[in-house]
Amino acid sequence: MFDTNLVVVGNVLTAPEWRRIASTGSLVANFRVASTARRFDRENNRWVDGNHLRVRVSAWRRLAEGVASSLAVGDPVVIYGRLFTRDWTDEDNKPRVSYEMEAMSIGHDLSRGRARFFRNKAAQVAAVEDAESEAVVTGELSEPVPAEEMPIGFGEGLPLAAEEPPTFAEPDPVPVEVPAVPEGEDELTLEVERLVAEQPAGARRTRRTKREPVAA
């Protein structure tokens, strides 16, 4: 009821990692994202870095599959999800706090690059666990998933670049409006030019010279 849902815009800080929840055996894809505020320094006339935010992001089921096959370190991303803090104690028995986010939607930031979307094929059973995984609290004891047991890896499920290279449409040029010529205008102009050309040289009106005043 009082969940904090928000959007984080930043860059992928660590490669997505498959982990298995020890108590349930559920699979989840985790990675870290870093977001840095930018502000304009008027005194120095340049942009400078502001506050930093680093969040551990968890993705479940089909979203986890898309994350594992699509995201790499450094990718600009836009993430929408539920933000919360997790309190824990380290090996020295000191209290710690970490920021975590359960993602609902993740996509690339297209203001900083281009991407192409490939729709998932319909499947009866997803590689990641069912809806009961939602009840698992993020941050519970988990263990890394061996490479041979990973449901999907980076780049899997995407067409090869050599087989289907992406194409991007360029914007159409702005049409230039040409003023319409009234019907019969061209014929009238040609007729006037023909009549002028047929007149004798002496019959053509010459420009009068300006008369100078005569001294009395």
UniProtKB/TrEMBL annotation:
The keyword DNA-binding appears for this protein: yes
The UniProt record lists the keyword DNA-binding: yes
InterPro entries: NA-bd_OB-fold (IPR012340), Primosome_PriB/ssb (IPR000424), ssDNA-bd (IPR011344)
Signal peptide: none
Transmembrane segments annotated in the record for this chain: none
Region (Disordered): 196-216
Name recorded for this polypeptide: Single-stranded DNA-binding protein 1
GO biological process: DNA replication
PROSITE patterns, per the entry: SSB (PS50935)
GO molecular function terms listed in the Swiss-Prot or TrEMBL record: single-stranded DNA binding
Domain of life: Bacteria
Keyword terms: DNA-binding
Gene3D superfamilies according to UniProt: Nucleic acid-binding proteins
Annotated GO CC locations: nucleoid
